[in-house]
Automatic annotation (TrEMBL):
PANTHER family: ABC TRANSPORTER SUBSTRATE-BINDING PROTEIN (PTHR30483:SF37), LEUCINE-SPECIFIC-BINDING PROTEIN (PTHR30483). It comes from the Bacteria. Belongs to the leucine-binding protein family. This is ABC transporter substrate-binding protein. Keywords: Amino-acid transport, Signal, Transport.
Length: 424
């Protein structure tokens, strides 16, 4: 207390009243400036945006989660070259919704300014609830269930197609495939996982199919548990329908089980086509199935091999993972890196990681320099990028290869696919 006693000569701890008043005013002004500009002065000095990356790196979806994680691992160096500064905080959901929720909380408590993730729609929904409650932005890397951007959340942003977009674009490309090949199946069977993503695609298929004037009919929809040990019963049921086309919604593990069982039961439809799900183009699909992986088709967004960012990412990937093929990981890597880029771009424009300001910057996103084919990344009032387009990928020589649209095609499509016994 003695240090703050005013002396008889008007001094206060060695300061006159005038000097003290001036100092106090200066402090007040500084505090007011900080309040007005948020955390901008600190970030202007070069602090990084802390990005919490939430992915299923173990459990059922580990292969996809680990592929996405590679995009997060190479992101800081690549984005640093482009003038962005990010710090990655990683967390494993263990392919579990409840764990995803708790890990999202922990990432925020550990200082994450934004969450990126979480590949699976169910786990992403859990993270979205946490982010909405905490007022922290969530930028989805991969997750298609429509409801994720239909619940009125103000903190979610998705640079990935909804299930409705995937199915709509995927079915349209099937028409193009049939027109180019001159072969049109008359019937199809739809096989899909019974998880959040698979059921969302089923709902989209049910809603869209009657409106799109498709040249074939769907004779049956067959769901399965992606955690099953085999899909013998489901494949036998699908084969018994006599359908000429297999439409599938899969992930890597069940896609492998599905094709193995088709080979075993000698079911040879004219083709296997996915309207936008992973699995058929994942590296593990090629490694396990070999020649039986070829000719499967997936209609989904894909990277532009001519884009400058693609070249940077491919070079960085090959340097860090010299024993792995970029193409087998590219989809997961690209969408994860782009999600981090979206957050970093908003942060750079905002000049601060203060949530309200960062959220507003995310809403104003107009990102042209990116990896994926299509126009600039923008978000509607729900936080959805509605401008994403799809390409037709066919596995050729154990590589995902663009076959449509013709202007982007690396090879012509092969349809119908050769029978299992005719593969070399």
């Amino acid at each position: 207390m003695n240090d703050h006693r005013i002396s008889k000569n008007g001094s206060m701890g060695g300061l006159t009243r005038r000097q003290f008043g001036t100092a106090a005013a200066s402090v007040a002004l500084s505090a007011g400036a900080l309040a007005a500009f948020g955390r901008a002065p600190a970030f202007a000095q070069g602090a990084a945006l802390k990005v919490g990356v939430l992915l299923p790196r173990s459990g059922l979806l580990a292969q996809a989660g680990q592929a996405c994680q590679r995009g997060a691992e190479i992101a800081p160096a690549i984005l640093g070259e482009l003038g962005y500064k990010v710090e990655i905080l990683s967390a494993d959901t263990e392919s579990n919704v409840d764990v995803a929720r708790s890990r999202a909380e922990k990432l925020i408590n550990d200082g994450a300014n934004v969450i990126v993730g979480a590949f699976d729609s169910g786990q992403t929904a859990a993270a979205a609830q946490v982010c909405e409650q905490r007022g922290v932005p969530l930028v989805m890397n991969i997750a298609a269930a429509d409801r994720l951007t239909e619940q009125g959340y103000k903190t979610v942003f998705r640079n990935f197609p909804t299930s409705t977009m995937l199915v709509s674009n995927g079915l349209a490309l099937m028409k193009d495939l049939f027109a180019v090949s001159g072969v049109t199946p008359k019937t199809a069977v739809f096989l899909h996982a019974n998880d959040t993503f698979g059921m969302a695609n089923k709902q989209a298929m049910d809603a869209l199919f009657p409106k799109l004037d498709m040249p074939f009919g769907i004779v049956d929809s067959i769901s399965y548990d992606p955690k099953a040990q085999d899909l013998a019963v489901e494949v036998a049921k699908a084969k018994a329908t006599g359908a000429e086309l297999a439409i599938v919604t899969t992930r890597a593990n069940d896609a492998i089980m599905l094709v193995r069982e088709m080979v075993k039961q000698r079911w040879e439809p004219k083709g296997i086509v996915s309207p936008g799900s992973p699995g058929l183009y994942d590296e593990q699909f090629y490694k396990v199935l070999g020649k039986y992986a070829d000719y499967a088709i997936t209609n989904l967004p894909w990277y532009d091999p001519k884009a400058e960012l693609t070249k940077r990412v491919e070079a960085a990937f090959k340097k860090q993972y010299p024993n792995d093929r970029f193409e087998g990981y590219a989809f997961n890597v690209a969408f994860t890196l782009e999600a981090i880029l979206v957050a970093a771009d908003a942060f750079k424009r905002a000049g601060t990681a203060e949530p309200a300001t960062l959220l507003e910057a995310l809403r104003q996103t107009n990102l042209k320099d990116k990896m994926m084919v299509g126009p600039a990344i923008t978000f509607d009032e729900k936080g959805q990028n509605t401008q994403l387009v799809s390409a037709c990928l066919q596995n050729r020589n154990l590589r995902p290869t663009v076959v449509l649209p013709k202007g982007s095609a690396e090879m012509d499509p092969v349809f119908p696919a050769p029978g299992w016994g005719k593969r070399t």
